[in-house]
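User: For my dataset I need records formatted as: sequence, then structure tokens, nothing else. Please produce one.
Assistant:
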Amino acid sequence: MAITVRIPTVLRNLTGEKAKVSIEADTIDSMIASLESTFPGVKERLCDESGKLRRFVNVFVGDEDIRFLDGQDTALNDNDEVDIVPAIAGGC
């Protein structure tokens, strides 16, 4: 299934500065694998050594946080839009 993934600024150096990429994937896990095969280095930035998304990486399918769906097993449908959003911390 063809989906669109919105790439955060901090990862665009790995995608040739593309803000959006179109890939084939039917779950979040397969999306990560597809991104890695097309843009090497993406997975290590998104996932820990066991292959689980890092705590500071938020992923949304449409407006839904995958943490409240099926996590990395969340199913994707044709034409879904997935947002990868790194958490931001800071302040005084």
